[in-house]
Amino acid sequence: MRQLPEDWQRGLVIAAHPDDIEYGAAAAVARWTGQGKDIGYLLVTSGEAGMAGVPPAQAGPLREREERAAAAEVGVRAVEFLGYPDGRIEESLALRRDLAAAIRRHRPELVVLMHFGPVWAPGYPNSADHRATGRAALDAVADAGNEWIFPELAELPPWTARWAAVFEPGGDHAVDVTEVIPQAHASLAAHRRYLEVLAPERPVDEQVAEIVEQGTGPRADFPAARAVGFTLYHFRD
């Protein structure tokens, strides 16, 4: 397992829902902002359908506030929401266009995506929103550099990122996050109301410790006590 490249300055993290990034990738973000890198977050939905018993009109604004607070804990100031319907994301040309536009606006060298495979582990399916968002976003990284695919974006100059890094189990690259675990905990804990609804029988701090441990555990053949794994895709040198 190799070290993820860090000779870059601007990054953009794309996810389907508030809290997705905080399940492990936020630890890497904390490391990078600590190096002085400029990172932005782009959420396809506001997570409004993710809280049992809380109507979407209330849950959406709440989850946006929690995501902004979570981002601030790891040094991220720019948080954008595209407003797609939670639970009903489609891998569409419209989504690719909106993601490509965002990539052109942010002009990242590294785009970070969440795992979009069919399962997280045997017997644990990945959500439809995660699958659709990840596939569309990986295509959008290429779309953003092509002036002809979405001519309606002509006012935004084409931009090709150097890499896309997908946060997922068993990736081929990793980042040492040993020194930033406290920031990762604080970032996930900012989703307090969401976690209270998700598992009301368990204290939030207990949930946070378990989730961050799962997402930042030691990796085979990578010399770090705590690490985050990614699969790296190359788009330009």
TrEMBL record:
Its EC number is 3.5.1.-. Pfam families: PIG-L (PF02585). The keyword Hydrolase applies. InterPro entries: GlcNAc_PI_deacetylase-related, LmbE-like_dom_sf. Keywords: Hydrolase, Zinc. GO terms for molecular function: hydrolase activity. PANTHER family: LMBE FAMILY PROTEIN, N-ACETYLGLUCOSAMINYL-PHOSPHATIDYLINOSITOL DE-N-ACETYLASE-RELATED. This is PIG-L deacetylase family protein. It comes from Nocardia jiangsuensis.
